[in-house]
Amino acid sequence: MVSMTITLPRLYVDADLIAGRDVGLSPAQAHYLRNVMRRQRGDGVRVFNGRNGEFLATLSVLEKNVATARIEKQIKQQPTAPHAITLLFAPLKKDRTDFLVEKAVELGVAALQPILTHRTTTRRLNAERMMAQIIEASEQCERMAVPEAYPLQDLTQALADWPRDVPLLWCCERDDVPRTPLMVAEIPERFGFLIGPEGGFDEEEARLILSLPFVQPISLGLHILRAETAALTCLSHVMLRS
Question: Is 95 exposed, middle or buried (0-12, 13-18, 19+ CB in 10 A)?
Fold first, then answer.
């Protein structure tokens, strides 16, 4: 059944998915289906909400800014992710942040936590736009769960709020800090990656990070990687080990 429906448009909805019920789609989804995909009333779509699996649905209403889908039957069950990864990262320039968010979703991140550091150059982030990017990437890459997006937060506060029983793997470029190579680092079920800004963390921030017992410095190799490259290296490594 999945192979027969793989070409159908795939949409994220927040409503509970129960066979026989109707779910309303957003005006943007109505526009996409009607004007971009050239779908018509009665055509099939796939819908998921990150909780109930993926369902086959039929468009019962499709007008200019209004669309409704009738839920037909489940075609994929909701899986359990092997790892729950939170990515703490300093926002970059617009295009590079967009790239990082899209690829992090494709590589299985569970949550994105943007942070402000002393050297962060981009100090504003459009949270609504980032969430839209996360949903779009989840739809396109066939993810069954949509990652969470947390508000932009100061590094100090983010570290203070971090659960003490959850490891935080710091991608550390400093040669004076004992580091574990990522290739041999223990990968628990729930943890985070901490990625610094362009230029890295300053001395004050590094001392704070190193003082925390739940932080484990890791090395990504001999080269100094750009922030987005470091993030995707980490997530790719975990995905390949899963």
Answer: exposed
Are residue 24 and residue 108 in the same domain, yes or no? no
Provide the CATH number for the domain around residue 46.
Answer: 2.40.240.20
Q: Running DSSP on this structure, what letter comes out for residue 142?
A: T
Question: Domain containing 221: what range?
Answer: 84-241
CA-to-CA dists, residue 182 to 40, 139, 168, 169, angstroms? 50, 30, 13, 9
Measured CA to CA, the distance from residue 185 to residue 217 in angstroms comes to 10
Q: Which residues contact 170 (CB under 8 A, 6 or more apart)?
A: 194, 209, 215, 216, 217, 218
Q: Give every residue of the chain whose pLDDT is below 50, as ranges.
A: 1-2
Q: What is the CA radius of gyration of the chain?
A: 20
How far apart, in Å, are the Cα atoms of 226 and each of 85, 137, 219?
A: 20, 22, 14
> pLDDT tens across 143-165, in order?
999 999 999 999 999 999 999 99
Look at residue 1 in the predicted model and tell me its pLDDT: 45
Closest CA to 56 of 43, 47, 66: 47
Q: Which residue, among 41, 86, 89, 96, has the nearest Cα to 63 in the 3D structure? A: 41
Distance CA 164, CA 167 (A): 8
| Residue 207 three-state SS | helix
Rounded to 5°, the CA angle 142-102-11 comes to 40
User: What is the number of structural domains in the chain?
Assistant: 2
